[in-house]
What does this fold into?
Amino acid sequence: MPFIAHISDLHVGSINFEEYLLINAIDELNSMEPDVTIITGDVTENGYFLEFKEAVPFLDEIKSPIMVVPGNHDARHVGEECFEELIKNRYGTLKDKKHGLKVIGLDSSEPDLDYGKVGRAQQNWMEHEIIHADEENLYKIIALHHHIIPVPKTGRERNVLSDAGDILQSLMTGRADLVLSGHKHMPHVWMMENTAFITAGTVSSLRLRGREISSFNTLNIEEDFIEIILNRADGTKRCLAKYENTCLGD
Ligand SMILES: [Fe+2]
Ligand SMILES: [Fe+2]
It folds into this structure.
């Protein structure tokens, strides 16, 4: 059954970036041998070419296949061009037929703006990719930086997707299984119908809220249940959510 690692908000280049946190997290997730690692944006702090250059060797250390999407910080200072040059396409898919899953990565960033938007063209593309995943009976995982549903304990809402309602409708209609995001540096899970909306904390930044510490998520998708585990930098683990798996074997 699929086992997924989800890390986010590395913020390489920030004064709050702690290299040892990222190295430790990558060591730990490599030892867990995930089938895929999903990185939901804010790889860099300012989108600078040199920050991407510094970030790439860390990403290269990840042994599993990876899917990386950009965050608002990566889209600063024409960072989207550096992202495409040094990392990969800003949106795309990653299929793992062996484990029966498909990751659909979206670019929700807007140049030099903090709010997020998926946009009509990408929304249509995503809808088609979801239909194709259904045809192949693959587990449908959507990855994007910005949260679609507001996250508790993150202050007044101001950075939700500007087209959140439209994207939410597409995800519900397409019966997406998992929607992974970052951005708020606050781990959380919302369930809506049979879709889990999972937000990861920051893996290597000290821009934290309250008593949170840096962390990453792992997702255990079993035949009859799905478990989302918070892996904290101090070595402690906590179950963020566990729910019945109604998706596989339909
Ligand atoms: Fe961030
Ligand atoms: Fe962000």
Summary: The first strand starts at residue 3 and ends at 7. Helices lie at 19-32, 49-60, 79-86, 120-135, 164-173. The first helix runs from residue 19 to 32.
